[in-house]
User: Which sequence fits this backbone?
């Protein structure tokens, strides 16, 4: 829950709320007015922590401190998130052997960095009648990667989309440098 979505004290719309005091003990269901008076008596705020419950659950606590803790949790969760980028390598079905090896090196580098790689073969004009050549090129890429000892997972095998044949390759678990 975002901190701007939290309702405190008089912003709470329910007539009755379930109250948990500053010590974490249940105080039961009471009218909103009584709960706000209880919070003011303690010198703290009444914060609606579970608005979807029936009746809504409110805690008596220091709102500034609570908001700081929530934001800290969100920052930590964001920090631990892994960002996976998808890199794309394009080629044509009439690619030379040396060019194929060069592109394979780039694919191996991208996989080594922990990125997914979309390998695409673009067909132009009459090449579209011979899509099996694209499949051969993609298979050759996988063969070169295997020969060079690159660990990978084939997420999506070769498939046609418009005038392109593509496959999606991701690094194998534990192979990231």
Assistant:
């Amino acid at each position: 829950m975002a901190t701007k979505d939290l309702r405190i004290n008089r912003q709470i719309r329910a007539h009755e709320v379930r109250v948990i005091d500053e010590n974490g003990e249940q105080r039961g269901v009471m009218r909103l007015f009584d709960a706000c008076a209880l919070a003011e008596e303690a010198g703290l705020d009444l914060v609606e922590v579970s608005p979807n419950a029936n009746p809504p659950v409110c805690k008596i606590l220091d709102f500034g401190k609570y908001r700081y803790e929530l934001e800290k949790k969100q920052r930590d969760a964001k920090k631990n998130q892994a960002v996976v980028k998808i890199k794309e390598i394009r080629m044509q079905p009439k690619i030379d052997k040396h060019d194929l090896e060069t592109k394979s090196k780039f694919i191996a580098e991208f996989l080594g960095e922990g990125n997914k790689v979309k390998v695409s073969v673009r067909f132009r004009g009459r090449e579209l009648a011979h899509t099996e050549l694209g499949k051969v090129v993609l298979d050759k890429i996988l063969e070169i990667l295997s020969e060079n000892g690159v660990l990978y997972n084939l997420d999506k095998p070769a498939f046609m989309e418009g005038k392109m044949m593509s496959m999606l390759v991701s690094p194998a678990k534990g192979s990231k440098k």
Observations:
- The chain has a mean pLDDT of 85.
- Residues 3-78 form a domain with the Ubiquitin-like (UB roll) fold (CATH 3.10.20.80).
- Residues 63-79 form the longest helix (17 residues).
